[in-house]
Design brief:
mainly alpha, 65% helix
């Protein structure tokens, strides 16, 4: 896509070459400063090589072939180094959890052998996603080691990597990294949990109905880059309602056990306020020295957290269970594992603090998006909690081999996407139609919002089949999963 840059990568590549000059002249956008760490790291790598910036505002591969390849090579090297660092810290996490060799292998296959990690980063290397994923690994590390120092470090660096990730860190840092105070008597039952989950489901469904038929954007300015099947909206509504209800039913079982008054007393006001102050100071710095460009979702709608959530939510209903199809395409077998063991993940999360439970709630809502790459930060945390819950599991060699083969198959690392010629993607009068057909669909079939209907249906059916088969094996072979673990 765009010669390996991707759409956002054209800007990343430009600022990686001439960051210092652009920054002095206040031409670096605020949103670019919020992602500046990987951009500046590559800038330093290019500077060491003696690569000088070009005068053009954007780097078009056909016009600047030499610079084009040097930038791509620098980002590929950077992504490789970040990937190796992610694997290294994951090994430290598995050692801390006392996972056996087989569990370490399986957890590593699920976490790393998928489209996101072994295909996406090196096909379209000019991106910040590998750094976001690595920050998620560090957050999982801070939870596994219950290290506040590591947590504060992650909170600070995410200010320069991904603005959304900062809020997750703030929530975790607000409470101790240990089990929250519980009610002395279980005064709630399944009825209260179901009632709360139903209330959340109805709220989300109400928002979906309102914004799906009363668009977020003014007439004539609605984005058209994502295919939408309005005739299937009732089925989409049911699919998302089941997803939200099932997810929050497990969450409320744990959340309603927490004593809210006692939990409030454990709120870590001093470090939380310090982190908040640092966040505000950094944002003030960005606003002062960054370029104020108009960031809009559509006409008259600025880019805010609420508008982004509604925008993502609306396209979650574009096709039935669109997010499930997208998550399976991007994370492969790992998404199936997280879905099957969501309740156990929640239960284990409560051992790492009320903040961890709250960010799992945020993750569930965030996972309604069909653009799965936005979930990269919390992906390692969810996997850490999964294997922390089942740290006593022993897999036999055949099971390990089968999981590896399935992960490789789902990752599509074996599937050739190149070559994509420039005329296939530049200045096309109908970009959506272009993305939905070959050759661009070879790439976009892995990115939920831009799958064509055949690829959407294929991934959805494969994901459902994997969920049913894995669930059946788990029920018929419980010792494989629940060996010395309370199910």
């Amino acid at each position: 896509m765009f010669g390996g840059y991707g759409s956002d990568g054209l800007a990343y590549g430009h600022f990686s070459l001439g960051f210092e000059k652009e920054f002095r002249e206040h031409r670096v956008p605020i949103r670019m400063l919020e992602r500046v760490l990987p951009v500046y790291a590559v800038h330093l790598m290019l500077k060491i090589q003696g690569v000088e910036p070009v005068p053009e505002k954007m780097i078009i591969p056909e016009e600047q072939v030499g610079f084009h390849h040097k930038v791509l090579e620098a980002y590929m090297l950077y992504n490789l180094l970040v990937f190796i660092a992610s694997v290294f810290f994951w090994m430290l996490i598995t050692e801390k959890l006392n996972l056996g060799i087989s569990s370490t292998l399986v957890s590593s296959f699920l976490l790393f052998v998928n489209f996101a990690n072994i295909k996406q980063y090196f096909y379209e290397p000019v991106m910040i996603d590998p750094t976001v994923f690595f920050a998620g690994i560090l957050l999982a590390f801070s939870l596994a080691f219950r290290s506040y120092t590591a947590l504060y470090f992650v909170a600070v660096i995410t200010l320069f990597i991904n603005a959304a990730a900062v809020y997750y860190c703030l929530v975790v840092a607000a409470f101790p990294l240990s089990s929250p105070p519980l009610k002395q008597a279980a005064i709630h039952g399944k009825f209260q949990s179901r009632l709360f989950a139903l209330a959340v489901t109805l709220f989300i469904s109400g928002l979906a109905i309102y914004y799906f038929f009363s668009p977020l954007c003014p007439e004539g300015s609605e984005p058209t880059e994502i295919p939408t099947a309005k005739n299937w909206f009732p089925l989409s509504l049911v699919a998302v309602a089941v997803y939200v209800f099932a997810g929050f039913l497990s969450l409320t079982d744990s959340l309603l056990q927490v004593n809210p008054v006692a939990a409030l007393r454990t709120f870590r006001w001093k470090p939380w306020l310090i982190l908040l102050l640092v966040m505000l100071l950094v944002q003030y710095f960005f606003n002062k020295y960054g370029a104020r460009l108009s960031e809009e979702i559509c006409a008259d709608k600025p880019f805010t957290v609420w508008n982004y959530f509604i925008y993502s939510l609306r396209y979650s209903y574009a096709r039935p269970a669109a997010m499930a199809s997208a998550h399976f395409a991007y994370f492969g077998l790992a998404f199936i594992s997280l879905s099957i063991y969501w309740r156990q993940i929640i239960q284990e999360g409560s051992n790492y603090g009320l903040g961890t439970l709250l960010i799992l709630s945020m993750t569930l809502l965030h996972s309604l998006t069909s653009e799965t790459r936005h979930l990269l930060f919390m992906f390692p945390v969810s996997m850490m909690l999964l294997f922390s819950a089942f740290r006593e599991i022993k897999f036999n060699s055949l099971t390990v081999a089968i999981i590896l083969l399935l992960c490789i198959a789902a990752s599509k690392v074996w599937f050739p996407i190149n070559p994509l010629n420039s005329e296939d993607y530049i200045f096309h009068p109908e970009p959506l139609q272009q993305m939905l057909h070959s050759p661009l669909q070879k790439y976009f079939m892995n990115l939920g919002p831009w799958m064509n209907n055949r690829m959407y249906l294929l991934h959805l059916l494969l994901g459902v089949a994997a969920f049913v088969v894995c669930g059946a094996i788990i029920r018929t072979k419980p010792k494989l999963v629940y060996d010395s673990v309370n199910a």
